[in-house]
Amino acid sequence: MSETPQVERSTEAAPAVDELTPPDRTLMGPGPSDVHPRVLRAMSTPLVGHLDPSFIEIMDEVQDLLRYTFRTDNQWTIPVSGTGSASMEAAIGNLVEPGDTMLVPTNGYFGGRMRSMAERAGGEVVTVDAPWGEPLDPVDVEHAFDEHQPDVFGFVHAETSTGVLQPNVPELTDIAHAHDAYVIADSVTSFGGVELRVDEWDIDVAYSGPQKCISCPPGASPLTLNDRAMDKVLDREEPPKSWYLDLSLLEGYWGDERSYHHTAPITNVYALREALRLVAEEGIEARWERHNEVAGELKAGLQDLGLEMNAADEYWLPSLNAVRVPDGVDDAAVIDHLLAEYDIEIASGLGDLAGDIWRIGCMGHSARPKNVEYVLAALEDALAAQGYEA
């Protein structure tokens, strides 16, 4: 009789991990923003299957609420399973085919990300230039179209890296459509907080993230396409490089069939539904106005401290305030001071503006007067600690 094999048992003890107790921060950076208590409660409700009849009803409700917030009637309006970068890649990776030319801006960090995604999709990328901290000039966009005749034009409606809101969006979309091009709008930092009218402004595709002006944890990210754009997606000669983000397959799950594609992030969809309910209860135009008013108080307070905004008044972005770091002040030390002494999060600059600006968000549930008062008082103290006098 053979001997029973001996199982070697590990003498190493299991790691001792304490109960999760993250710090209670006031989130005033470029995202995420503070989450409304109702949204957190929604996330604690019972899990159901992603094809459960009750969840399918929730999917319908989320799509209707997304349409309301995007100001669109687009049938193809869904939350992409993933962060805002997933909805961004779904938009670009499906609309840009190998051999297509995409026109992207150079006036911020996220125009560069558009470029990277378009190149990975097999597209040829050309640029329309503007300095970091300024919007695109329609005249320059027109010249770029005349020179390159791109198939797709992408622009950033609210550039998180510079604090610039792109004006004259209908003028940009008119230029693109006169050249028979498709328009993709990055609305990550404007959706739900700054005026955005997808249908009225004739935007073909818009994507966003939930963690900014919607004040929802990341995980289910808004995306909308009109029929013209979806027809291009469905008529592709070869499928997109990403199976997971292939909209022709996702259409089967989020369309009429509700057939299995992947397991949706159910709890994140619950959260998005509740966050969008809050938008609808407040009213989208009232919400835009609240962001403008509260951020205006923040802007005035920053200027009272002697600080300079990065963006000019005519294209200041209420949801993301980019503030110039004064001479002689260490930007990272101020950020660390706010976090250590006040549990306030703000962020430094990205790319060309790294070390030159602070990025202070005023988004969603964080866009409240008490938060503005708190961050201004804390910032004054942090600056004083470095010898700066307002």
UniProtKB/TrEMBL annotation:
Keyword Transferase appears in the UniProt entry: yes
Domain Aminotransferase class V: 48-349
Cofactor: pyridoxal 5'-phosphate
Pfam families: Aminotran_5
Keywords carried by this UniProt record: Aminotransferase, Pyridoxal phosphate, Transferase
GO function terms (MF aspect): transaminase activity
Nucleotidyltransferase recorded as keyword: no
Region feature (Disordered): 1-34
Family classification: Belongs to the class-V pyridoxal-phosphate-dependent aminotransferase family.
Name of the protein in its database record: Pyridoxal-phosphate-dependent aminotransferase family protein
Organism expressing this protein natively: Halorubrum laminariae
